[in-house]
Structures are given as C-alpha cells and as structure tokens.
Queue: 4 jobs
Job 1
Amino acid sequence: MQMTVLGCAGTFPGPASGCSAYLVEHDGFRLLVDAGYGAVGALQRHGDLLDVDAVLLSHLHADHCIDLVAYSYARFYDPRGTAPLLPVYGPPGTAERIAAATGSGRQDWLGQVFDWRTLDGGPRQIGPFAASFVRTNHPVECWAPRLEAGGAVLAYTGDTGRCEDLVALARDADLLLAEASFLDGPGNPEGVHLCGREAGEYAARAGARSLLLTHLVGAWGDAAATLAEAKAVYDGELALAEDGRTYRVGR
Ligand SMILES: [Zn+2]
Ligand SMILES: [Zn+2]
C-alpha cells in the first residue's frame, strides 16, 4: 500500500498546499480519501485525471469535500467519453452537499458521474481495501477510516477533537495519519481538532508504527512546535505530512 499527499493544509489552502486529499493505492486500485480545495489540480500531478477507482469522504466540511464539484465536471465532460460511474463513500447528505455546491442544486447529472454510497459506521470493502470506521468528535458527522490491504494498515483521523475510539482506529497501524490543527495550550475549543501532543498520545497508546501529522493551519500555526509536541510523547517514526510526497505503508 502507498499513500500520496495531494493536500495537507488545514481549513484553507496554504501558498504551496491544497487542503485534505490523499491518494491511497494498492494493487493498482486508486482510492481518493477526501477531496479538499486543490485536490483535482494535485491529482493531475500523480497520474491520469480520470484514474481514480473510488472516493471516500470523511466529512462534508469544504476543506475535505469541495473539489468533488470540480471533479464532477472533469469526469462528466471528459472529451474521451463518459468516465465510468465513480463510487463515492461519504456521510449522509453527501449528494445534496455536492449538488448544492455546484450552484444548480440538481443531482440528476451528478448521478451519472458519482455512485453515492452512504457511510453508516459499518465496514465496507472498497476495491482491495477493507475499510472500517470510527465516528470522530467534530461539529459535523465525520467518519475516520481504517484501511487494510495486503497486510498493511493505514488509519486516518479525519477531523476530530479528543476521541477515545482513535486508539482502536489506529491499533497497531503501520501509519497513523493524524490531524494536528492546534498548538497545545489553553483556549482550544473542545470537540473540533487535536493538537500535536494529543495526536502523539493516541499514536503511542495505539502502538502505531509511524505517525504523520497533517491538517496544520500553516498561516496560524507553528509546524516545528507541533512536531515537537508529538515527539515529546511518541517515539515511533514521526514527520509532518509533505505535499506531493508518496509514503509506503507497511512492508
Ligand atoms: Zn478540516
Ligand atoms: Zn472538519
């Protein structure tokens, strides 16, 4: 399994990175996990625009889903002919959310592009990926996926405040991709995001073999401080997610 970061900026794009989007691949199957601002641009730097086999949206905040609007046009109007119907797994209301964002509010043509599949917390088989989910602690319904294929495990927190179920999500994972939007300290709102220390603590408790910190809000944060927070509590392999970089997951 491998995972390429198509965008890792939190909340709004940075000068050199779009928002949450990750291309997870195994055995030639390409799963786009989240599709925040800039995902469709970045996707074209890593293969054919249409070469995506399924999409999985953790939640419907714009920084995780909005480029599905752009992607609907890219697939629907592709001059090579109609692209195959693309399965899109997302929380309840995904079709309506994307339709509203197109401005037309109509879903009929989107139904010719996307095959909407609603997440309800139950496990799903998505191509070669056995996917299971944890409901996170976030202002909107957010499903954090654990993806297993070929003996490798990738866990992704989506967006979340403190959430005990993250330990099960990341149990013995080869890679935990964890949001770390906040810096540790007083005044962070409850139930929205993690800080670097919290991400590191969950990774340590879960026995995750490596930890990538993502969803940092570059313009407001301090990446070095976020990394140091996690490093103080987690002694596995640790780094900040890098835009455009591909990471091997498992052996
Ligand atoms: Zn977000
Ligand atoms: Zn969010």
Job 2
Amino acid sequence: MTPAGSLLVAHDLRKAYGPTNALDGAGFSIHPGEVVAVMGPSGSGKSTLLHCLAGIATPDSGSITYGGREMAAMNESQRSALRRSEFGFVFQFGQLVPELTCIENVALPLRLNGVRRKEAEGTALAWMERLEVDLLAGKRPGEVSGGEGQRVAVARSLVTSPRVLFADEPTGALDSLNGERVMELLTDAARSTNAAVVLVTHETRVAAYSDREIHVRDGKSQTMERVI
Ligand SMILES: Nc1ncnc2c1ncn2[C@@H]1O[C@H](COP(=O)(O)OP(=O)(O)OP(=O)(O)O)[C@@H](O)[C@H]1O
Ligand SMILES: [Mg+2]
C-alpha cells in the first residue's frame, strides 16, 4: 500500500469536531526532499490534516506512518520526541517568543534538546545567515518587520535539521513580495537539507514553489496533476 520511498503516508483519515467532519477520508504522502502544497478553501480541513500528520492532533480513524512506523502505536512522549527532533514548524503568526532576542528564538529548539548555549547560538546564526536575517540577531521580535520575523521563524524551524517541515500559511500575513522571498529561502533551505515540506496555503502563487499539490475539499483529498 505504501508508495515506495515515502517518508510520511496517511490513508483514509477521519476526524470529527462535534457534527463537523473536518477530515472525511483524506490521504497524503510525501518523499524526503519533496515539497507538497496542501490547498483548498477555508474550512476544508487543511490545518486539521497538517496537525494530524505532525502528531499534534489524533485522527478518529485511518492510519499515519512516519518512516514506516505507525504514529498511533507511539505513546505521547515518543510523538513529542518526534516533533522536537524530526519535525519543524512554521505558522502564520505569533510564533516567536517576544521576550527573547531573534537569535535566542532560533536557538530555542536546540536548547530544548539540551544543546549548550554557545553551540546552539552558533548553529542558529548559520541558519539566520542563510535566511538573510543574521543582522537581526540581537533584536527582539517586536523590533523586526513581518517578513523578517517570518524568516527568523523559518530559521528556527530548520535549526534542528528536521526531516519534515510543516508550514501552515507561512506567508499568509505577508505582502506578495515578502511572501515570495520567504518561500524562495524556505524551499531552497529545505531542498539543501533534503527535508520534506508540507506547505498549507490557499495562494496559487505560494503553491507554485511546490513539486506537487494535494487539494482538500470537505475533508477529502485529491492529488492534482501540475499543468505547466
Ligand atoms: N478545534 C476545533 N473545534 C471545532 N471545530 C474545529 C476545530 N478545528 C477545526 N474545526 C472545524 O473543522 C473544519 C476544518 O478546519 P481546518 O482548520 O482544518 O480548516 P482549514 O482548511 O485549515 O481552513 P483555513 O484555510 O481557514 O485555515 C472547519 O469546519 C472548522 O470549523
Ligand atoms: Mg487552516
């Protein structure tokens, strides 16, 4: 059943919130290094799908395997270890810790994994250079622009060299120019480390950075052929 070489695979996912079927038989698969855009109208189930794939939410039924391991068979501490070391996350807003400087924000996932401050900040700075925000290292999130803040957040999501980067509307709060800049740097950085990217967006311009699109409608998914 599992497509050869897939890293993360989901079959027939169902999840209801009261009377709402947020997921109603959705499927998904992604290879290492692949960028897959999850598209669809508001309320169609995109974020719910991402949360299930990332082990943040639990589907009512269906299967999700990561590297051949069934997620439902893991306990919460195993899933949380997976999220800390194998997955990276970027959301639309409000994700940087306002009291910390930008470099402390980027270094945070490493610090939480027990890496010493000096080493963590060294790695953080290298990622900030890559995302072209190294000059903001000592500033706090409140002192940088929206686009800069998102690039800091992307640096933070990649600092642990995750195998899968989950991005839910990462450019949703940005104008198109800043959005494209974030997408370019995000996809380049992910491709250079062979990380897979699950990119939720409803903008065609953002989805254009992906290798493949999955469309979600009423909790059901469909793989779309890219017409170039
Ligand atoms: N925690 C929740 N409690 C109740 N209903 C929820 C919850 N989360 C999502 N839903 C419902 O499930 C459906 C799918 O929501 P979801 O957030 O996955 O949509 P989405 O495609 O990400 O939409 P958007 O583009 O607006 O972010 C919606 O009808 C939503 O109202
Ligand atoms: Mg959403």
Job 3
Amino acid sequence: MKITFLGTGTSTGVPEIGCQCKVCTSPDKRDWRLRTSVLVETEGKAILLDCGPDFRWQMIRNKTYHLDAVLISHEHYDHVGGLDDLRPFCRYHGVDIFAEEDVVEAIKTRIPYVFREHKYPGVPNLELHDVTPGQPFTAAGIPVIPIRVMHGKLPILGYRIGNMAYLTDVKTLPDEEYAKLKGLDVLIITALRKEYHPTHETVSEALDNIKLIRPKEAYLIHMGHSIGLHAEVEKELPQHVHLAYDELSFEID
Ligand SMILES: [Zn+2]
Ligand SMILES: [Zn+2]
Ligand SMILES: [Zn+2]
C-alpha cells in the first residue's frame, strides 16, 4: 500500500493569506501546507481521502491520472471544496464518493447543478454512496472500516483501510472505536497546534491518543501555522511520531 500526503494543512492552509509569521514565510517547503488530503494506492486501486479546495493542484502536482473512489470525512469546505474538480476523472465513468448520509445531503445542497435531472453538459458525474457508521463497506473493491470521530460536538468519520487509518479533524474518539484501531502500521491523525482548541486535538492530545492506539508509526496532519516550524516541532516528537508534510509518500506492507 502506498500512502501519499497531498495536503497536511488546516482549513486556511499554510501560509495563511496575509500572514507574515515565521512559519508562513518559512523557506522550508515542509512548512507549506495545502488543505488536508491523502491518497491511498493499494491492489491497483487509488482511493482519495477528502477532496478539499486544493484538490486540482494536488492532482497535478502528484501526477495522479486515475482515481477509483473518494472517501469524505465531513462536510466542511476544506474537505469537500474540490468535488467539482473531479470532472476530468469523470470522462469515461462516474466517480464513487462515499460519505455519511447527512454529508451526502450537504454535498447535494452545495453543488446542486451536479445532481439535477437535466444536467448541464460537463458537470462531474458523481456517484454518491451512503456510509453507515459502524458498518464496514468496500470502495472500488477495497474493504474500508468507518471510524466514528468527534470533531468537537460534530460526529464525523475517519476511515481504516488495511493497517492504515486516517482520522482528520479529531477532538475525541468514542471509547468503542479504539478496538477498530488495533494493530495499525500507520495512524494518520490531526494535531492542529499546541494551544487548546474546542474542535481539534492539540499536539499533546494527539500524542495521548497515539499512546492509546499504539500504531507502529503515527503521522500528524491538519496543522495550522501556529504549531511552529516543521523542523523544530518534529524534533520534539517521540521517535515513531512524525509531522506529515505535503508530498511525503511511502509504502507499507
Ligand atoms: Zn478540516
Ligand atoms: Zn502565519
Ligand atoms: Zn472540520
């Protein structure tokens, strides 16, 4: 399985528009973070995790020519803003999109012209599929386990594929979800910044969850500029925990 971090930034991206802080003006490219999205390639299939507003550039930058399915964590713009840009992938067949029922409804409201009976020519052909929390499913034939994640008070979804789990916009996890996260080789999990936030884990809250889940390796995502410079934060983390950065890519068994 190949994992590629297409974007590792929070909703504003880094640099933030208009910001002159040391992270937003850093010459280190690892401090430049497009909105969070991960590409998983396994058994000849390419599965996209979230499709934010930087999706178009992420596909071009990563030279991705083929997608088999898209899994959506929740309806916030930084996770769905790129859905219209799936058009080039819809030339020959529809693209399967998986999301929880309320998120499917939100997508239809957000881009209604895509779902009208008489479609404007050229709109993307998106095949929406409801994910039922607690019920494993297959996307492009690949088994997926949905994981309930609490984004503050908002229930959203993370996804486990093989021994990799993607949990974005996490504040807390319900107790019963930990059993679904046993034996992970790679855990991908939010760490917005060091200071408290009501709907996202801090770095120390992410480290607490990593201790409970005990993956072989953990990669932090959805970082904001106030987390600090990549090179400095990476040094403060335990050996098996890393700050992910855009274009980081590796294979696991
Ligand atoms: Zn987000
Ligand atoms: Zn900044
Ligand atoms: Zn969110």
Job 4
Amino acid sequence: MILETYGGAGFVTGSCHILRVNNKTILLDCGLFQGKEDKSGENTRFPFKGEEIDYVILSHGHIDHSGRIPYLIKNGFKGEVICTKATKDLCEVMLRDSGSIQEMECDIKNKNRERKGYKLLKPLYTEEDSKRALKYFRGIEYGEKIKLFQGVYIKLKDAGHLLGSAITEIYIDDIEDGEEKKLVYSGDIGNNHRPLIEDPSKINNGDYVIMECTYGDSYHEKEDYFKELMKIIKKTIERKGKVVIPCFSIGRTQEIIYILNNLVEKEEIKCKVFVDSPLAKKATEVFNKHSSDFDDEAKKLLRQGDNPLEFKGLVFTESKEESKAIRKYKEPAIILSSSGMCEGGRIKYHILNYLEEEKNSIVFVGYQSPGTLGRDILDKKEYVKILGKKISVLAEVHKVPGLSGHGDKRILLDWIESFQKKPRKIILVHGEEETRLAFKKELEKKGYCVLSPEKGCTIKL
Ligand SMILES: [Zn+2]
Ligand SMILES: [Zn+2]
C-alpha cells in the first residue's frame, strides 16, 4: 500500500492523506486549508480526480478536516464518507455553515471585482452543495468493525477532541505483498478531563501510525477554569451586570452551557443565560441527540434526570428580532455568542451594548489572534472601533482560557507509549514544522522510527 501525504503535512490545516491499497483509493480526511495555507488558491486544487476516490474516512467535523468534502463531490466523487453518527450530524450543521460563509465571502470579493471590471468568482461550494454532500455520508458506531472492500476493514474509537471525533484503525490484508498490517490514523487527539466528552481512547497496537502533533513541543498550563469562571459570573451578577462570553458555537459553547448547568442546579447562580447563535442551537441539538457519546459524569447527570445542556433560564435565540430583544432585558444575565474572536457574527452587537459600562464583564475563553477585535479588548485598549463607532473599554475584561481541545506533549507521548509494541513507523502530521521536528526528536530518543513527510511525499508501507 502507498500513503501520500497531502494536506496537514508540516502545517495544521487542510488535513488530507491519500491511501492506495488493494486497487482502491481512500482519503483520510478532506479538510479546508485556512489562513496562510489558503492564500495561493490551494483549496481549488486536488492532486487527484474526484472519481478516483472510493472512500473518505472522516476523523471529525472540524472544517480543517471536513471542509472540502462538498468540493470533492462537485469534482466527481461518488463513494462513501465514513464517520461516526455524531460527526455526520455535526457536519450537517458545520458544512452548511461553511457553504454559506463561502457564498458570503465570494459576494464580498465580487462586489469589489465588479467595480474594477474583473471576472466574477464562484464560491468553492454553496450551502446547497453542502446539503447535497450529506447524502454521501454514512455514520457508524464507535467500536463497530466494518468491511470497506476486499481485505480492508475499519474501526473508529473515540478521540476525545470533539463530540464524534475518532481515531481510525484500518486492518489491511495487502494483496500486493500478502502481508497483514494495521494502520492507525489518530485524527486530532483530545485533551483529558474536558466537560461532556470522553478522554482520548488508547490503542493497543498498530504497524503504522499517522499521528497529529499540534502541541508536540509544549505542555498546557493547569488552571481551574470552572472556579475562575464562577467567580467572575457571581461578582458580575451581584453588581447587576451582564457577563458577555464570545465563543465558538460548536464545542466550546456546549462546554460552557454544561458548566453553567452545574452552577444553576446547585443554585450558585440565578439569572438568565442567552445563547445567541442559531448555529449553537443546532449544534446543541446534535449534542443532545448523541448523549450516548458523553463521558461518565455527564451520563450520570442524565440518569439522575438532569440534562446537562438544559436548565431553567437557558434561552436560545434564533431570529434577528430575538437577538435584538436581549438588549431590552434589564436584569443581570449571561450572554454567549459567536464569533469567538469577535470578528463577525452577533457578538459584535453585544460587545457594543455592554463594553462601555463598568458593571459588565467580557470573558474570553479562547485564543485571540493579534489584530482581532477580541485581542484589542483583551489588551485593554482605551477605545475600540465597533461597527464604525468608537467605544471605550470600561467593562471588566477577563481571560479564562478553557481546556484546549488538543492533548499536549504529555498526552501525545502517553498515547503512543500505550501501544503494546512500538509501531514500525510513525508518520507525523498536523503540526507546524518546528513543533513537528521537536516531537520527532523526542520520539526518536525513545527508539521510535519516525517520518515527517512534506506535502506530496509518497511512502510505501
Ligand atoms: Zn479538530
Ligand atoms: Zn485539526
């Protein structure tokens, strides 16, 4: 069998690896290039034809892993996309959203191009393309061993990174050399002890491992994120203020709802919680539908009759009118909205409404890139510009970084060292080049055989 590394080799986005085995071709993920890797039009090119691909095995719903599937289908793919059932449902939400973002961004660019008399662009794919793409998805259960074709079976195990995220075990009877081999694709490996979802599964064995290394050279700081968040909320409510939390609609929002549920059930807080994002509402429905994938703590709550994503006072707002009406609510409240870095979406309006009052708190739970509105507020600039208005930063500003979705160096090493026998080869992907080389050295010191292929490398396994 042959493995070709394509996206996510030496960098983080655009995850996609091509596996050619027993006369068929499988893609491991088919993600969107984002940020600097997207600049050169990389997203519009594939080093293969869509109809050449028989299967896509999708590790999880994040767009840097799933985001080019609708485009692959537009390019002639007619096979099956295999993932967990939760990933399939999350993709319905995420890919449709991604399609509508593609359309929106294309419209903005075209307005400019029209003025200059340039040829108009077409979006990579539309929301409608994403809707069509979902018909190709097949959701399977964790632990279910399924046959893809002659001599190739797969099994998915929980990766603990996002609801539905999976580590893929591929069992191969290679007709080329008559050997039996097992390939493991780690996908994104999660962090331990995160709310709602399980810790990453350990894998017993494998001959070849394609492994992520996002944080292969650093350790996460240990912080008590729940306690910190609770303190800020309690103080803000006592002084009759609003707590505004910018956060991503899928994953982080449900995590915060879970924490707030805990506080409400224990009667530590009594106020309304507005989740102002239609995307978050849909994603929360998917989480509820797949509560069988939750960790033991969340399942215990469910058994006791407490749905951890539902409590008295929790309000999801969908329409623009409902969103605007939040401003008229005079009592203390908590508002969750996206985007996480305040660059777009409804959060901007909430920041505009509440930033100029000292009794309010703005709480950042994720990383804020330099140059974003979120970062400017976090850096406590005297003024920020929102929707053309100059606004003073008077509310309290807090940074409470939640637990990272990725395991750090310790977790990655524990994961690979839990294999009963050292794999024959580890192929490192999904990491910035410097990090990848540092992690490679670390593994080599422990006696592993490690490859760090460039994009476009062909490896015979
Ligand atoms: Zn991910
Ligand atoms: Zn990723």
